[in-house]
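Quick one, tokens below:
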């Protein structure tokens, strides 16, 4: 049986027996069936599982032995864990999960601090040891659809690890934890180093410094395994989240997609342990960009909506504007022009409030400048043009925004070389949509020159796709023939070292 209440099934022909374990926890909780049903529905809505509509009869069926479908078992585990201040697993409730148990190669990982540190340490060490191009990535599998979205929704759910710890039995242990060994200047230096890595990525692409970032991340996980004061631990988790996101972004940039996704997931877990929801929303936006790149705009939209919901009361205008811009990208790739245009307007309106924001923006969102806003919105209209059958109308909306983005990035190309190259390519694609191959060829040639200054497989791939489109549509044109020859000489298809 399945239904909106999260109904489940029993093995064919098996006799249904009352769930004594669930009944025991339920009786001790003091909740009524109606109260438990309301809490399940409330938590499901927080997760975005709006199809869940549980009532007292459904709770009675669970107690009678029916096994509910996901995400109900996980929701019940979380609710009882919070009620009793201890971890109450799905198995403790006499329920069974409908998906494989969490593993180091998947994305459905335990939302606890110690396990997050252990997985970060294990994965970064493996990456450093095995990351010849594609080797580590080939041992992973990309997740998409519900297998990706449902675990990420737990970012917003208070975890049992958030329950205040009982007093330490050993005073000496407490003193050791309070002392720690990391000084404030050392913490400041870690944060400054992370900012430096981010600048290098913008200047040089993901291929040049990726291993350095992974190495720094591994060092931070070592520090997280040592006794530290709580405030230091939270700052270290924040550093770990930023480094893991950057390692994921660099992996995405050089084409290691499963590796990138795993780092993004671990970054989100770290952001939760740091108690930094705006940072978590930024990580989700990076995951959304990857899903758009992989042709999964519906997943991208789910991730962005989760980011918006989780940070709407704590993120500044610059972050919120970026999230609206990514929402527009998702709607564009889904072929929904009305919603795309509305999200573009929201991005523009919200960005206009950024200068009036009375708090300093975190370093990870400072990249989202006026140039980035123009770039994202122009790419939304460009994508919409392709989805709408190479629409000249949407191409004409993209053109002035893309031109402005190229101008702004060109003024500081040294600091944003990759963004400059990407937007030159974007401008070239717009001119192809407008059936102006000569102008497109000029811009694509400039993009090839810019691409040679960075190590980014993403940039190279987009140039090749643009040239392929030009050859398909205008292959006999002299400018396009010359462009093809230049591409083969100056940007041959060779594997980048990562």
């Amino acid at each position: 049986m399945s239904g909106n209440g999260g109904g489940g099934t029993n093995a064919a022909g098996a006799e249904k027996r009352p769930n004594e374990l669930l009944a025991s926890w339920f009786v001790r909780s003091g909740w009524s069936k109606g109260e438990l049903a309301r809490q399940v529905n409330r938590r499901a809505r927080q997760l975005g599982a709006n199809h869940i509509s549980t009532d007292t009869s459904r709770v009675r069926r669970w107690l009678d032995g029916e096994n509910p479908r996901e995400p109900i078992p996980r929701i019940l585990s979380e609710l009882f864990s919070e009620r009793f201040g201890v971890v109450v697993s799905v198995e403790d409730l006499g329920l069974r999960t409908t998906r494989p148990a969490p593993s180091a190669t998947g994305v459905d990982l335990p939302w606890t601090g110690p396990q997050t540190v252990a997985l970060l340490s294990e994965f970064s060490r493996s990456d450093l040891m095995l990351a010849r191009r594609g080797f580590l990535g080939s041992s992973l599998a990309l997740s998409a659809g519900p297998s990706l979205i449902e675990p990420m929704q737990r970012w917003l759910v208070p975890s049992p690890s958030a329950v205040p710890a009982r007093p330490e039995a050993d005073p000496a242990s407490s003193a050791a934890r309070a002392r720690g060994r990391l000084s404030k200047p050392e913490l400041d230096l870690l944060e400054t180093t992370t900012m430096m890595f981010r600048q290098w990525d913008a200047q040089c692409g993901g291929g040049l410094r990726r291993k350095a970032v992974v190495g720094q991340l591994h060092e931070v996980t070592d520090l997280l395994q040592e006794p530290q004061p709580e405030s230091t631990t939270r700052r270290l988790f924040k550093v770990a989240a930023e480094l893991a996101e950057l390692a994921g972004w660099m992996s995405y940039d050089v084409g290691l997609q499963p590796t990138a996704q795993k780092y993004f997931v671990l970054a989100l877990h770290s952001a939760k342990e740091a108690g930094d929801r705006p940072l978590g929303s930024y990580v989700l936006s990076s995951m959304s960009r990857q899903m758009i790149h992989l042709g999964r705009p519906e997943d991208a939209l789910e991730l962005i909506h989760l980011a918006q919901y989780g940070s709407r009361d704590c993120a500044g205008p610059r972050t919120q504007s970026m999230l609206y811009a990514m929402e527009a990208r998702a709607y564009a790739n889904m072929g929904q022009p009305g919603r795309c245009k509305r999200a573009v307007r929201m991005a523009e309106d919200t960005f206009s409030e950024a200068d009036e924001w009375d708090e300093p923006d975190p370093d990870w969102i400072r990249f989202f400048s006026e140039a980035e806003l123009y770039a994202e919105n122009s790419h939304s209209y460009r994508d919409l043009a392709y989805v709408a059958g190479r629409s000249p109308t949407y191409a004409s909306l993209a053109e002035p925004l893309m031109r402005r983005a190229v101008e702004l990035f060109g003024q500081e190309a040294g600091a944003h070389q990759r963004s400059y190259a990407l937007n030159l390519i974007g401008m070239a694609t717009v001119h192809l949509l407008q059936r102006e191959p000569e102008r497109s060829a000029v811009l694509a040639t400039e993009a090839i020159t810019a691409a040679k200054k960075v190590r980014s497989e993403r940039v190279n791939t987009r140039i090749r796709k643009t040239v392929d489109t030009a050859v398909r549509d205008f292959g006999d044109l002299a400018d396009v023939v010359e462009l093809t020859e230049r591409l083969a000489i100056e940007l041959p298809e060779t594997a980048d070292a990562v």
